[in-house]
Amino acid sequence: MAETDQEYLGIRRLNHRTFAGELGQHxxxxxxxxxxxxxxxxxxxxxxxxxxxxxxxxxxDQPPFSIAQRLPDATLFDRIAGRKLEVRxxxxxxxxxxxxxxxxxxxxxxxxAMRESYQVLLISGIAERVSIYRRxxxxxxxxxxxxxxxxxxxMLLRIADLPEKIRKDVERxxxxx
Length: 177
What we know:
single chain, alpha+beta, about 25% strand, globular
């Protein structure tokens, strides 16, 4: 979990590289930093290499949720039963994109969700990568929505519906730590 000022600076750098530079969701900035608008209420699961943040995912459970603005029907969110955890800003430095970093971030996130009794995971998945999210059991809540140059699909996963293979992978990951 991110704790230090240096780690938060690394998160802002990785956010900028990914969401401004790579995906075009935000404008690039001269300082090459992009602060998350929900930073004050989020926890960040990070992956480090030589003390540098190379991977991250943000989680929070406090409204408002960013996914709400991507739903075709604003009342849909209120009809989703269960304790909700929003999962945001999955980013991995291109030089470190491999299964271990991805598995570590998502395995840790799912482990936290299960341990803390969340029932529903909410994401805005990048439309071009929807097949990855579906393998985890996420289902679309509406059509893709454009944000800058990136297109996102609001999605939901009930922890109880987590595919058995993913559940086993998470358990294997937790035992390795």
